[in-house]
């Protein structure tokens, strides 16, 4: 019987210890291998305090237990880059979840709850820590791909399009357990905090591999932007959420994005400098996000294969 594949877990503590070049090199090698094999890995000792993560999950459980009419007071604001605040998927859609979405703490588009008390402050802190961890991961991925030093940091210097989602998935029924259908993320990379119920799965060679949660661990997956910049050296991974039985599933998902005006295309060091043809046409990030129809009402389809994805920019 074949051995069950597991998603690698990498310790980021060397990046918080000045001068630990050996530890950093080992971690980068492990992440590079995980990105090439899975497009997904887990991290520990990433800088986000455990107590803060636990508090965020508890506040999320309290908030999503409020009546829908209370949660709907946090509606999306006009002019936001994408729907924010509270949203619940319509019953007729195959995907089943509700979420609260926020932009950076200083964003004028945020629509956040006043209750539970101190939930806003916790969300602000979570957001700031996710950004700090994102900076570290961005530098690691930059080096793993052999980009020029600080290329991603300088290219992706605007954090205004990042967003954080607190999600709740209701318990699975006897007939279906779909949380979020198989899909790829359109950003640079995504970080996921899931509680002990699990449910996140990664597609590898036709098999769905569960991402087993453990205390203090975050999941990280690459998005379409990295796939295009690297001319498909690193791939955006297909993943889904399967709802557990008996109890709800709670998670936090942080999307490390680009600013909308950024131009995305395969970089020369993955194409003409090594005699390879570009595999993708270039595009503005905002245009790609619009084409993906990221609005919750259309993000999940009864026919997921018909939804817009990065394949539409492939050069035949």
Automatic annotation (TrEMBL):
<dbReference type="Pfam" id="PF03171">
    <property type="entry name" value="2OG-FeII_Oxy"/>
</dbReference>
<comment type="similarity">
    <text>Belongs to the iron/ascorbate-dependent oxidoreductase family.</text>
</comment>
<dbReference type="InterPro" id="IPR005123">
    <property type="entry name" value="Oxoglu/Fe-dep_dioxygenase_dom"/>
</dbReference>
<dbReference type="GO" id="GO:0016705">
    <property type="term" value="F:oxidoreductase activity, acting on paired donors, with incorporation or reduction of molecular oxygen"/>
</dbReference>
<dbReference type="Pfam" id="PF14226">
    <property type="entry name" value="DIOX_N"/>
</dbReference>
<keyword id="KW-0408">Iron</keyword>
<dbReference type="InterPro" id="IPR026992">
    <property type="entry name" value="DIOX_N"/>
</dbReference>
<dbReference type="InterPro" id="IPR027443">
    <property type="entry name" value="IPNS-like_sf"/>
</dbReference>
<keyword id="KW-0560">Oxidoreductase</keyword>
<dbReference type="GO" id="GO:0046872">
    <property type="term" value="F:metal ion binding"/>
</dbReference>
<dbReference type="InterPro" id="IPR044861">
    <property type="entry name" value="IPNS-like_FE2OG_OXY"/>
</dbReference>
<protein>
    <recommendedName>
        <fullName>Fe2OG dioxygenase domain-containing protein</fullName>
    </recommendedName>
</protein>
<keyword id="KW-0479">Metal-binding</keyword>
<feature type="domain" description="Fe2OG dioxygenase">
    <location>
        <begin position="160"/>
        <end position="258"/>
    </location>
</feature>
<dbReference type="InterPro" id="IPR050231">
    <property type="entry name" value="Iron_ascorbate_oxido_reductase"/>
</dbReference>
């Amino acid at each position: 019987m074949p051995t069950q594949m597991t998603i690698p877990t990498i310790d980021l503590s060397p990046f918080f210890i000045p001068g630990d070049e050996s530890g950093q090199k080992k971690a980068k090698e492990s992440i590079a291998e995980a990105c090439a094999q899975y497009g997904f890995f887990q991290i520990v000792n990433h800088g986000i305090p455990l107590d803060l993560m636990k508090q965020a999950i508890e506040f999320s459980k309290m908030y999503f237990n409020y009546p829908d009419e209370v949660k709907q007071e946090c509606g999306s604001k006009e002019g936001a880059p994408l729907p924010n605040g509270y949203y619940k998927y319509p019953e007729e859609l195959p995907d089943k979840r509700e979420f609260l979405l926020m932009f950076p703490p200083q964003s004028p588009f945020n629509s956040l709850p006043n209750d539970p008390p101190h939930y806003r402050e916790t969300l602000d802190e979570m957001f700031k820590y996710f950004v700090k961890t994102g900076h570290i991961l961005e530098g690691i991925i930059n080096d793993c791909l052999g980009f020029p030093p600080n290329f991603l940091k300088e290219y992706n210097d605007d954090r205004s399009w990042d967003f954080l989602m607190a999600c709740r998935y209701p318990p699975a029924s006897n007939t279906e357990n779909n949380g979020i259908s198989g899909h790829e993320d359109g950003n640079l990379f995504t970080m996921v905090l899931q509680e002990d119920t699990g449910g996140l799965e990664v597609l590898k060679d036709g098999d769905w591999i569960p991402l087993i949660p453990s205390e203090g661990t975050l999941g990280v997956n690459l998005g379409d932007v990295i796939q295009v910049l690297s001319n498909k050296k690193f791939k955006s991974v297909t993943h889904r959420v399967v709802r557990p039985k008996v109890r709800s599933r709670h998670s936090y998902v942080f999307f490390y994005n680009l600013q909308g005006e950024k131009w995305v295309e395969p970089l020369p060091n993955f194409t003409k400098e090594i005699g390879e043809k570009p595999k993708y046409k270039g595009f503005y990030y905002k245009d790609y996000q619009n084409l993906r129809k990221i609005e919750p009402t259309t993000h999940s389809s009864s026919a997921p294969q018909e939804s817009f994805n990065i394949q539409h920019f492939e050069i035949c």
